[in-house]
Amino acid sequence: MSDQPEGINVQELDPNMKPPELKTESIQWYSPLEAPFQITGFAWFEKEGLYRRMPQSPSHPLSHGVQSLANCTAGGQVRFRTSSSKLFVKVVLAGIANMYHMPATGQCGFDCYIGEPGEQKYISTTRYDHNQIEFSAPLFEWSNVSSEMRMITLNFPLYQGVKELQIGLTSDAEVAGPAPFADDRRVIVYGTSITQGGCASRPGMCFTNILSRSIPREFINVGFSGSGRGEPEVAHVLAQIERPALLVLDYEGNAGQPEQFRQTLPAFIRIYRERHATVPILVISKIRFAKERFDPVLAQLAEERKQIARETVAAFADAGDKHITFFDGSTLLGDDYEECTVDGGHPTDLGFIRMAEGLAPTFRQLLK
């Protein structure tokens, strides 16, 4: 008899680990593309009707990485009110969950918050067979809760595309439009894989989504994993986003060598300033990576790039730009920064919470 341990099927041992059975009797399905549902987080949605973060036919040629990752739906939200005692989603993804270091619930799932803008509370995440592209999943079902109207926010997947989405509510439920934002101007956050949400356990834990709950505005997440390099073409396209309230540049982690960063950062700012002379710009240096504690060369490169960002912001300010600010991102994760990541660089939920909490006061100040 072999003394080797057998593989464990946790779903057989713990029923709480199984995807829930779907009971969709008396459910009416809605398209969130139609009123009264509101789609936010996709700057070109009103023109193109796509769950996509950059225009299909951009005015300036974008890299293959940016064009591909623009189909990932990070930062997208569906907002509405309903009295329904059940909420389901039907989803057709562009691909399966396939990341080795990020939960499928964050890469490909939706999660749900209930509450008014600035007061949302998490309730659940889609659970489904992660080998499938198409799935249906409940987000809540209850029989002992009052049927009052509730504000719902659904967060889109962070690292996969969504081809189709339907929302299932009880057939007798009321459905209405969402509470409006206090200000319809948008917060645009450009950056790297960390900006995109790698490697949050679920979409609501990406730091831009966390900030959107404490600062109730529309956030446009334009983080491109490995491809947030500060190209001038991207600056031209982002400058076309209407109703900007704040532009955040957090791409140092993909910026390359210090001299490359020294060229791209001021050029990016100048291009944006051609169209938006007074929109606040916040330049954030990157968070600390675990290897920097042990590798002095990596630590020195990070310090050089941070100094370039600081000097660039100071140069614009000295030239008369009163709406540009530098933030030292190396402080965001705290002294135990290595404990806040999955792989030494990409934050866990703990890391994203620390980032959001550290950035929130500066965001609020600039948005005044």
From TrEMBL:
The keyword rRNA processing does not apply. GO terms for molecular function: hydrolase activity. Residues 27-174 form the SGNH hydrolase-type esterase N-terminal domain. Residues 185-362 form the SGNH hydrolase-type esterase domain. Pfam families: GxDLY (PF14607), Lipase_GDSL_3 (PF14606). Keywords: Hydrolase. InterPro entries: GxDLY, SGNH_hydro, SGNH_hydro_sf. Residues 1-20 are annotated as: Disordered. Its EC number is 3.1.-.-. It is an enzyme of class 3 (hydrolase). This is SGNH/GDSL hydrolase family protein.
